[in-house]
Amino acid sequence: MSAQSRTEQPRTTVHLVRHGEVHNPEGVLYGRLPGFHLSDRGRKMAERLGEHFADADLASVTASPLERAQETATPIARAHGLRLGTDERVLEAGNSFQGKVIGQGRGLLRNPRAWLLLWNPVRPSWGEPYTAQVRRMTAAVRDARDAAPGREAVIVSHQLPIWATRCTAEDRRLWHDPRKRECALASVTSLHFEGQRLLAVSYAEPCADLLPSVPQVPGA
């Protein structure tokens, strides 16, 4: 392909948005469980995201089927008069600790029986393989990109699938310390394409001033 034909390829951006804060006073790792909705602060984050994307040339807004993702995506879609789509491929990662309390005191990780699931952080052994998350997320990104040439698309998903996708895009290793993920609540990880070629990855925190002072459960 000549240099001239490459420059004629459409520039398309797919934004991977993490959902806002969830009402979760017990500190449960809720994973794919239903019934976990945005907190009051999470709803403010969702409205802020709607403002953040107000001037974007959005062709589509899609979200994980979980309530927290749907509620985060709704103001974005509403601001553009778009129908909110649902995509199972951008669902939260599967996790064997789902429904358990992870943390100090009575937290699950103080139980030696839980350690049997922690033997392989590379896969990881306690849940859905990182590579499986990347495959399904990449397929969703590809479809969103190809359906909106020259425009932008939003996918509202969850921390770990977004982070694993970014690591792959930036040629980083997939296994990592969860405390070091750059994927805050209501953050925006943007994949910038020229045609089908990934040009760059960028990251923004439109709700930085709304973030809680105490971090939530990793992966939530």
From TrEMBL:
Signal peptide: none annotated. CDD domains: HP_PGM_like. GO terms for cellular component: cytoplasm. Gene3D superfamilies: Phosphoglycerate mutase-like. One of its GO terms (molecular function) is phosphatase activity. PANTHER family: BROAD-SPECIFICITY PHOSPHATASE YOR283W-RELATED, PHOSPHOGLYCERATE MUTASE. This is Broad specificity phosphatase PhoE.
